Amino acid sequence: MIYFDNSATTIPYAESLRTYQEVASKIFGNPSSLHNLGTKASRILEASRKQIADLLGVKSNEILFTSGGTESDNWVIKGVAFEKERYGKHIIVSDIEHPAVKESAKWLSQHGFEVSYAPVTSQGFVDLDQLAALLRPDTILVSVMAVNNEIGAIQPIQAISELLADKPTIAFHVDAVQAIGKIPTQSYLTDRVDFASFSAHKFHGVRGVGFIYRKEGKKLQPLLTGGGQEGDMRSTTENVAGIAATAKALRLVMDKEETALPKIALMRNLIHDELAKFEDISIFSGMSDDFAPNILTFGIKGVRGEVVVHAFEEHEIYISTTSACSSKAGKPAGTLIAMGVPTKQAQTAVRISLDDDNDMSQVEQFLTIFKQVYNKTQKVR
Ligand SMILES: Cc1ncc(COP(=O)(O)O)c(C=O)c1O
Asked: SUPFAM superfamilies attached here (predicted)?
């Protein structure tokens, strides 16, 4: 089996699963309980929060746990909107955001807010001049992802931070779900960023855990009310085992970054160079440093992405038609459409997303099978 769909989800690390099992079976108390089982659970929870905060270079009280990337995005987008609505009702999200952001913004637009979509260039980067032109006195929130999940384009978070430097009343949110462990933390957690979203299953943690970074002092309405957990910001009994497993996974991923990222880039570059030799290939991801090293999105001209995905699946090679969410819906990649790629061409797109788990022999097997798939689809082309 060759798993090249790591942007959809990663295989949990064995160490992370072991931590989950240990904590779930031995430190099972409810962190809110007064007895010592509760205290033990609460200590693990806070130690995990501190470890994650330290790894990201932020403060412990700036990390709030959630159930994943989607909840993190929903919470920030809606929570900021409701918190700041007395100052204005205009929000801006980029045109290539994940549905977790875009749909949250759309929901707000059905509940009295106005949403503008910041366009991207033909390469897939938010257009700074057009973003600047959308800013208004009643703008309360700007949300731009750090790394695009469909083509890997690294968004100009530093430049947007500068653009917003003299507009402190606008909250700046960054969806960092695809960025963590792939690009340097300081490139997307700038001093100007107020909120950021993360998801554990994208970095070898377990499913059902995420967190947000909320800069100290920045206000957000809670979405879950109840027993007052997470400083009264998100009520529900904490997933202590999942959170401990998340801290473990993050430490491992960050420890490996220095060796893993060049290795991943090498594999990605080799695949790119080989694919580029074929005539009927469109390559949608760029290869410069402005793109994350792990993602390569391409298409075989005239052949729908799902046909290619299933052809590889026959050989137990797992890739995807761009994002996992758009693939089942059969929609072409929203990012490609926003870049101006014609729909027919966008429908050919498939994404491979690599990880340190992968190796060169898998790359070679992938390329061998690619030749077969390419030849098999000759008639369609
Ligand atoms: C950029 C981005 N944001 C948010 C999400 C949603 O994360 P989750 O699956 O943890 O809800 C994803 C998942 O693919 C993503 O790629």
From this structure: PLP-dependent transferases
Q: Strand pairing partners for 197?
A: 175, 212
Q: What's the 97 CA to ligand 1 centre distance in angstroms?
A: 10
Is the CB of 327 inside a 6 Å radius of any atom of ligand 1? no
Q: Where are the domains of the chain?
A: 2-9+256-371, 14-251
For residue 199, give the ligand 1 atom closest to its CA: 10
The residues, ordered by sequence, that sit 6+ positions from 113 with a Cβ below 8 Å of its Cβ are 81, 85, 89, 90, 91, 105
Looking at domain 2-9+256-371, its CATH architecture is Alpha-Beta Complex (3.90)
Query: What's the residue count for the chain?
Result: 381
Q: How far apart are CA 20 and CA 120, in angstroms?
A: 40
70 Cβ below 6 A of ligand 1:
yes
Q: Give yes or no for residue 177 having a pLDDT over 90.
A: yes
CA-based R_g, the chain, Å: 21
Tokens 């100290």, residue located: 216
> What's the token pair of residue 94?
């980029």
Contact present, 379 and 280 (Cβ < 8 Å): no
Residue with tokens 């994350």: 292
* Residue 66 near ligand 1, beta carbon < 6 Å: no
Q: Is 325 a catalytic residue?
A: yes
The residue to which tokens 């800013």 are assigned: 135
How confident is the model over 128-149, as a mean pLDDT? 98
For the four alpha carbons of 267, 269, 275 and 277, in that order, the dihedral sign comes to negative
Which of 203, 160, 159 has the alpha carbon at shortest distance from 178?
A: 203
**Residue whose CA is closest, atom 14 of ligand 1?**
8
Residue 307 clears pLDDT 70, i.e. is over it: yes
CATH class for the domain made up of 14-251: alpha beta
